[in-house]
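USER:
Make up one protein:

ASSISTANT:
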Amino acid sequence: MSTTELLFSRTDTELGSFAVRPLDPFADAELLHGWVTHPKASFWMMQDASLPDVEREYMRIAAHEHHQAFIGLHEGRPAFLMETYDPSELELVGLYDARPGDVGMHFLVAPSDTPLHGFTRAVITTVMAAVFADPAAERVVVEPDVANTAVHALNEAVGFVPERQVTKPEKEALLSFCTRAQFEAATAAQGVSI
C-alpha cells in the first residue's frame, strides 16, 4: 500500500481538506520523531524516544494484526497521527467488557508554530469520521490520561461519554465511549459536516 493512497478524506467548511493515509514506519519516522518527542506530546509517553525507537515502535504497529497507524493530512501536508486498535486484544484487555464493533483510538496533532483556531477539533472529527467510515465500527473507545483535561473536552465535543477511571500499567485513564449515533448527534448539534 502506497503512502500516497488516501484511505479517507473530508472537507471542513472552515479549515479545508483533511485526509488519512497509511503510515510508513521508515519514510515517516523522522516526522513522527519530531511530533512524539515534542513537549506538547507529553501524554504520548515517547518524550525520550530516539529515531530508531520511533521506527521500531511503528514497525511493531505495522506488523500487528490488531493495531494500525495512519498519517493525517491537512491541505495535503502531514498534520496528525491516528492509531486504531482492537480493545479486546490490546490496551484494554480485562479492563472492560469489549463489544463487537468496538474500536480503540489514539490521535496526536503535530506541533505548530501557527496554530489554527478549531484545528484540533477538526482533527478529532476527521479521525472519528474515518473510524466510522468502516461499517463494522459501532463504538469508539478511548483511554486518555485522567490528567489530560484538554483531550477530555475534545472527546466530549465529538460525543464521547466518560464511563469510569481505569488503571493501566502506564497511567490512570478515563475510559470513555462514543457510538456512531452519539458522534453524529454531536457533530450535527455543532453544525459540523462529516
Summary: The mean pLDDT is 93. Residues 119-132 form the longest helix (14 residues). The CA atoms of residues 80 and 109 lie 4 Å apart.
